[in-house]
Amino acid sequence: MLELEGVSHGFGSKTLFSIDRLEIPAGKHLLILGKSGSGKTTLLNIIGGLLHPSKGSVRLKGTSIYSLNNNARDELRGANIGFIFQKLHLVPTLSVMENLLLANYLAGKKQNRQHGLKILEVLGIKHKKNDYPENLSFGEAQRTAIARALMNEPKIIIADEPTSALDDESCGNVIRLLISEASQRNCSLIVATHDQRIKDFFPDRITL
Questions:
Q1: What distance in Å separates the CA atoms of residue 193 and residue 48, rounded to the nearest whole number?
Q2: Nearest C-alpha neighbor of 127 from the set 143, 138, 112
Q3: What mean pLDDT is reported for the chain?
Q4: Where are the alpha helices (DSSP H) in the chain?
Q5: Which pTM was predicted?
Q6: What pLDDT does 124 receive?
Q7: Is 90 helix (H, G, I), strand (E, B) or coil?
Q8: Mean pLDDT over residues 11-15, rounded?
Q9: At residue 164, does pLDDT exceed 80?
Q10: What are the backbone angles phi and psi of residue 107, rounded to the nearest 5°?
Q11: First CA to last CA across the chain, in angstroms?
């Protein structure tokens, strides 16, 4: 599903990280651990087609992401990758449902309201579909971001520090939810964090 080969990234003469080879088969999950400033978010952005690495190649379903032009890379990313950012980036002027449908629109797909309703129901926030982000609790906003990441039925879900601001109980609940949703859809979950509480949820992990 996803292959990194000879990938490194740095600034000037400083190399932030270097990965000889990394393979993530379909349906397998990966935890990327590391303290702040170790390059976790940078690596996620490279994996997700948002940042060209200094060296190396990233292949998604056999296609070299960074050999594509910007439009083709956007299409590949939109069709295959769902992002959950550390800052949720919900559009404040759009309702919960409209935020979900925006994901369809940006990926060039038909807006699928029924699919959105099903996801919101599974996540327990269907009753919030017409609410705006300012009227959501942090947990509801986070579940909305998860729902948005699932809207295009991605092959890979990428989550950046999804638990860093949560208490122990909420932390476990969110990770179990992400793993459950990814496993049910046979998609891979890639989580980057410095939160040591979640490492036991992931048999496969790397540390930067």
A1: 16
A2: 143
A3: 90
A4: 40-47, 70-80, 96-106, 113-122, 138-150, 168-184
A5: 0.85
A6: 85
A7: coil
A8: 85
A9: no
A10: -90, 0
A11: 22
